[in-house]
Amino acid sequence: MIETQIYAQLKDLQGGRVYPQIAPQGTAKPYLVYVVPSDITERLLQGHGAQRVAVQVDAYAETPSAAITARDEVIAALLPLEPGDIERTPGYEQDTGLYRQTIETVIWL
């Protein structure tokens, strides 16, 4: 299961504050949230082939520089899974007052 592999690569980052889909309310900052928005298995004449998994990781922190540092740590941690192109998107969450750095990539299994 790819979610298990992703967690294994990220679990030591941000003091272990790494969560699937959503962080619990009141989580200490900084923290990471990861999600697998799509998981597609290619159909071949001989059956099924490679699996293309989209991965999104959001790094939340109290300052822009802390969010960027967390994002860069995420990218380095995911490298053993051989991610494809990596898209980086910055953001700011009005309701929480936190800066967000999102990475989106694809991993082939």
Describe the structure.
With 109 residues, this protein is of the alpha+beta class. It is built from 2 helices and 5 strands, in the order αβββαββ. The protein has one domain (2-108): Phage tail protein-like (STM4215-like, 2-Layer Sandwich), CATH 3.30.2000.10. The protein has helices spanning 2-10, 64-78, and strands spanning 18-20, 31-44, 47-61, 87-93, 98-108. A 5-stranded mixed β-sheet has the order 1-2-3-5-4, with helices on one face. A hairpin with a 2-residue loop joins strand 2 (31-44) and strand 3 (47-61). The protein starts with a helix and ends with a strand.
Which characteristics define this entry?
109 residues, alpha+beta, STM4215-like, 22% helix
Work out the strand percent. over 45%
Largest sheet: 5 strands, mixed
Q: CATH H-level name... which superfamily?
A: Phage tail protein-like
Q: What characteristic shape results from the CA principal axes? A: elongated
In spatial order, strands of the major sheet run 1-2-3-5-4
Name of the CATH first level: Alpha Beta
CATH architectural group: 2-Layer Sandwich
Q: In the CATH scheme, what's the topology name?
A: STM4215-like
- Structural class by helix and strand composition: alpha+beta
Helix share, percent: 10-25%
Low-confidence stretches: none
Write down how many β-strands occur, each being a DSSP E stretch of 2 or more residues.
5
The sequence of SSEs as H and E is: HEEEHEE
Rg, rounded, reads 15 Å
Q: Quote the distance from N terminus to C terminus.
A: 10 Å
Mean pLDDT: 93
Number of helical runs? 2
Organism: Salinicola endophyticus
InterPro entries: Gp17-like
Protein name: DUF3168 domain-containing protein
